[in-house]
Description:
Layout: E1 10-19, E2 22-32, E3 37-41, H1 48-56, E4 63-68, E5 71-72, H2 78-83, E6 86-89, H3 101-109, H4 115-120, H5 125-137, H6 153-165, E7 171-175, H7 183-196, E8 201-205, H8 209-215, E9 218-223, E10 226-231, H9 233-237, H10 240-249
Amino acid sequence: MPISPGSPLLELVGIRVSFDGFLALKNLNLQLAAGELRAVIGPNGAGKTTFLDVITGKVRPQAGDVRFRGRSLLGHNEHRIARLGIGRKFQSPRVFEQLSVQENLALAVSTPKTPMGLLRRHLTSAQRQRVHHLLEVINLAPRAHHRAGSLSHGQKQWLEIGMLVVQDPQLLLVDEPVAGLSDAETERTADLLRSLAGEHTVLVIEHDMEFIRRLQTQVTVLHQGQVLCEGSMEQVQTDPRVVEVYLGAGQEQQP
Length: 255
């Protein structure tokens, strides 16, 4: 069902999550437009991981609603939410290291999603084209037939992003994609995520402020479980509230 013009693809309204008396999210409100690239930052303990857990159904809020394409996600489990078109990439890459890069992408697009299922089932022409296209997008076409286990950490990150994108999610949630990457890999990752926006809505959580600048996009700052401010990186880094929060959290986290 298409969303109405001007309506957000994703909307969180008044989200509250508490763990044993600790308020992880407090009246959190956020909207994402279709095709948008959004970066989310915040000091440790700001609620970033819980925020993603609520969207994907891993954590159910005590109050508020999560709406995707105008429909509430509350009550749906993680698998159902994934099938609705929300893909999540965790910080550590999760690839099948004994399979080739191309086989990993083929496995992601095939059904059933098991290595044995891949051996028993041929991909359609459209699926093969999709796999070959994604190999180019993620800069791994020259290594298509190499074992995934032989890739660098950054290349494994790109492969896992490709494994999500090949399934054509409308919303892609990416958690700290450049942790442990070289400067060159970090720059290429920013280019990759920018290229995916438009066809997909992309939400990125990251601590690396230089990487956030390279994304050249809208930034949301979380603090103590709620949105502190939003704007361009230039606007955010000069906001007195953000400066105070990061200085209070330590110089190493200063935006």
